[in-house]
Amino acid sequence: MKLWKLACLSFLSLLLINCGSSSSSDNSKKTSETIVIDQSPDENLAIPDNTVVSSYQVLLIGNSHVASNDLPALIERFIKLGKPNAKVSVERLSNYNYLDNRINDGVTLEEIERKNWSHVVLQGQKYSQSKSVLYSTREAEKWIYLIKQRGITPILFPEHPQRGSTWEAQYVHDIHLSIKNNQQSCVAPVGLGWNEVLSQLPDLTLHAPDGNHAAYAGSVFTALVFYQVITGELADALPYSDKIKLDNSTQARLGEIASQILDEYQACDY
């Protein structure tokens, strides 16, 4: 009888130790994420100014709009063209999630902490095309806060309007301005710039056949906007590049419009 009781007690002790160990490990992981991700972004830190650095390490976080026509490669090409002595690397994390879905995905924060980024571009704020729903911007504000804590320049990316819906540019831009008002960040006037290109160069194809994503020329223009926001250098001062599949005149006009729109709508309040 004593042996049986001893065996039972040993078994129960082992079971409790194993259960406790597993529970402790899970809670520890969850607590770690909570401390980092869910801390309140009530402190509105200033935007770190990394326009003049020896190493431009840029990360684009978003959905398919940051992947169209290999946008990171275009941005990298322009930075290398305008800053030939700088080290340049532009990468993307585009697993097609919106910013609110990334808060506890276990991937996005890890990517932000993987490297000493100089700039992080955030795209994927939800918005209602019918204007009937107001989606939370709190998650985007949390990402901006966490990025600034690490000395990185945050840049919001209001995507371009869909074909035939030029009104979306101002609507989406205003949503991102409301985020900036709550948590200081750069806001790249991409959509407003697209409207200007459509007005000045009506024969240039900016949209892909689906009417939603960017055609090559559209991505080139978006990259020019980001070049100026990231480096602080004028896009219209960039020389012609034979690696960009647009003629000299078109490249020059897109650079002029990018600088024009950024003169009208300042991206960063340093």
TrEMBL record:
Gene3D superfamilies (UniProt xref): SGNH hydrolase
Keywords assigned: Signal
Signal peptide positions on this chain: 1-24
Stated name of the protein: SGNH/GDSL hydrolase family protein
Organism encoding this protein: Thalassotalea insulae
